[in-house]
Amino acid sequence: MPDASTPSGAPQAGLRTPRLLLRPWRPDDLAPFAELNADPEVTAHFPAPLDRAASDALAARVAGLIEEQGWGLWAVEVVATGAFVGFTGLSRPAFEASFTPAVEVGWRLARSAWGHGYATEAATAALDFAFDGLGLTEVVSFTAADNRRSVAVMERLGMTHDPRGTFDHPRLPADDPLRRHVLYRVTAERWRDGRRGAREG
């Protein structure tokens, strides 16, 4: 079975949901992306807000990975308005932990996009692609232990908390209150069973 080292396979145009387009990045995404990365509420569970240079560098990295492998952290656009609201997609954690190598589903959306179910909707499309497009057997997600908003999304997605996977993020200082992270998992079998149940229900 394919695993976290599986190569490309996503359509370059990205993924579509009823309300959202997960697509490759464009130059006009950089300004709104910098704005959300500078918002202290959006970045409350990250080490610090990003300045424009750091935000642009992050966008370049994730856009480059999509070009290289055909999938990644896509830019998220609201179809009805054409507005860029952040990113959602798949990535490989760039650090070592008990659960790596792995593929993670993640998201970061502007505060104006909160409360609409966009993170769950976009992540659902990403997970459909992870299992049906890439043939992965499992996807993980993780966040700072007190990030209840992201944990709620993971639980809405049907991911399961793995208490044994709780870890201290190796890229954060030992005294950083965000260092302790929780880990959630979902297998392909569990995902497909949940999606089938939702359709039949």
From TrEMBL:
Q: Which GO terms describe its molecular function?
A: acyltransferase activity, transferring groups other than amino-acyl groups
Q: Write down the superkingdom of origin.
A: Bacteria
**What InterPro entries does the record point to?**
Acyl_CoA_acyltransferase (IPR016181), GNAT_dom (IPR000182), N-acetyltransferase (IPR051531)
Annotated N-acetyltransferase domain ranges read: 20-189
Q: Name one Pfam family in it.
A: Acetyltransf_3
Q: What is the name listed in the Swiss-Prot or TrEMBL entry for this protein?
A: GNAT family N-acetyltransferase
- The organism of origin for this protein: Streptomyces daliensis
- What does the record give as the organism's lineage? Bacteria, Bacillati, Actinomycetota, Actinomycetes, Kitasatosporales
